[in-house]
Design a protein that fits this description.
The protein is an all-alpha fold and 426 residues long. It has two domains: 7-194, Up-down Bundle (Growth Hormone, Chain: A); 202-397, Up-down Bundle (Growth Hormone, Chain: A). Helices cover 78% and strands 1% of the residues. The protein has 18 helices and two strands. The chain has helices spanning 13-32, 35-45, 49-65, 67-77, 79-97, 103-132, 137-179, 182-187, 197-200, 203-211, 214-230, 232-243, 248-275, 281-297, 304-333, 338-367, 371-388, 407-415, and strands at 3-4, 193-194. The protein has a two-stranded parallel sheet. Helix 16 (338-367) packs antiparallel against helix 17 (371-388). It starts with a strand and ends in an 11-residue tail after the last helix. It holds the Pfam family MFS_1. Residues 13-402 form the Major facilitator superfamily (MFS) profile domain. It is found in: Cell membrane; Golgi apparatus membrane.
Length: 426
């Protein structure tokens, strides 16, 4: 690895963006389309919606809770071998799920094994991408994460067609084959060493620093609340539409409608995050608030036109909040601590991912409809937006990145004599 004074804002970084694009598609595109399998699992195992919801929730939670492991391994061995190993685990979990005879088998295969593979792929790749970009970080992140929306557009009807042709077991075998392409994505990653790295200390010092960093802790709480309600439409929207007497295929296609506007929102938000002066946390507050309001309006919509309009709006705003959510973190803690910081955030917000879908399924079982499920999901996002208001410089027109970092970095700067040139504002 060549030592660079600051992120190159391009070069091989665009290959990292390409790798992250396909990885986000193969991780979150599959997760978002899991609602297609939801109805099949309920019928096959004759279990209530709340128990079946744990499959996706465990997968999301393990992916996020295991992120510090992926971050630590990437710090020691580099992101390339870690991501390639994660791709093998993700594919193996889907392969074993095709032979499941109970929900417990699906909890262990999709939830635990595939979730562990996703933990080793997504966070190291996003952290690697953040180290390659500074001025164009939000745009690069937005382009990388468009893979989520485009794959959701393709995967939801594709999985529904596979279910009609091969049943759920055959469909999972083919999803396993798709997941194996994560190995090729990992091969594209090239680690980058920045001049800031020696200043921030080792993993232990970084962890202690972050745990005493107030804005970082509040940001983590906000993302946990957001994560609790964020995935609800992708898990329960198909079932909600079937409760409204929709046929399965049109219901699955509505998820694809969200996927059409999702990448548009990601790219637009990424561009705005770099073009608009001031901290990107303000954009994150905007998109989070709008997404929460849209979720709360879902039970009101009954006619197809209103449901399609809400889904298009949800796809745009939920897609728009994602790139700026990842761009806020380097502003708070700096690129030198991005591996540790992103892994810790993903681990804590896994609480929301673990509880969100089962809570929604439980409310459905108790009330008989998904009205309370969508209203509560929207309330979680609005609460997260309220916490984001407390971040530093939330209402300033301009806030230098260096001012958003914690004072410990400055102390390390004085203790470790390094040339000031090249450390950069980050």
């Amino acid at each position: 690895m060549a030592l660079r004074a600051e992120p190159p804002d391009g070069g091989w970084g665009w290959m990292v963006v390409l790798s992250a694009f396909f990885q986000s598609a193969l991780v979150f595109g599959v997760l978002r389309s899991s609602g297609v399998f939801f109805v099949e699992f309920v019928a096959a195992f004759e279990e209530p919606a709340a128990r079946v919801s744990w499959i996706a929730s465990i997968g999301i939670a393990v992916q996020q809770f295991g992120s510090p492991v992926g971050s630590a391994l990437s710090t020691k061995f580099g992101p390339r071998p870690v991501v390639m190993a994660g791709g093998i685990l993700a594919a193996l979990g889907m392969l074993l799920a095709a032979f499941a005879t109970s929900l417990t088998h699906l909890y262990l295969s999709i939830g635990l094994l595939s979730g562990s593979g996703w933990a080793l792929t997504f966070t190291p790749t996003l952290a690697c991408l953040s180290r390659y970009f500074s001025r164009r970080r939000s745009l690069a992140t937005g382009l990388a994460l468009t893979g989520v929306g485009l794959s959701s557009f393709a995967f939801a009807p594709l999985f529904q067609w596979l279910l009609s042709q091969y049943a759920w077991r055959g469909a999972l075998l083919l999803v396993s084959a798709l997941s194996l392409h994560l190995v090729a994505c990992g091969a594209l990653l090239r680690p980058l060493s920045l001049a800031e790295d020696p200043v921030v200390g080792g993993p232990g010092a970084q962890l202690a620093n972050l745990l005493h960093h107030g804005p970082f802790l509040r940001y983590t709480v906000a993302l946990t609340l957001i994560n609790t309600g964020y995935f609800i439409p992708y898990v329960h929207l198909v079932a909600h539409l079937q409760d409204l007497d929709w046929d399965p295929l049109p219901a699955a296609f509505l998820l694809s409608v969200a996927a059409i506007s999702d990448p548009v929102g990601r790219v637009a938000s990424g561009w705005l995050g770099d073009a608009v002066p001031g901290p990107v946390a303000r954009l994150l507050m905007l998109w989070t608030t709008l997404t929460g309001v849209i979720l709360a309006l879902y039970p009101v919509a009954r006619v197809p036109t209103a449901l399609v309009a809400l889904t298009v709006a949800y796809g745009f705003t939920s897609g728009a909040l994602t790139p700026v959510a990842f761009s806020v973190l380097p502003e708070l803690v700096g690129t030198g601590k991005i591996y540790c910081g992103l892994g810790l955030v993903q681990m804590v917000e896994s609480i929301g991912g673990l509880l969100g879908a089962p809570l929604s399924g439980y409310l459905r079982d108790v009330t008989g409809t998904y009205t309370a499920s969508f209203v509560v999901a929207g309330a979680f996002l609005l609460a997260g937006s309220g916490v984001l208001i407390t971040l530093p410089h939330s209402f300033c027109l301009s806030a230098p990145t260096s001012k958003l970092q914690d004072p410990v970095t400055e102390a390390l700067d004085t203790k470790v004599p390094l040339p000031r040139e090249g450390l950069g504002e980050d």
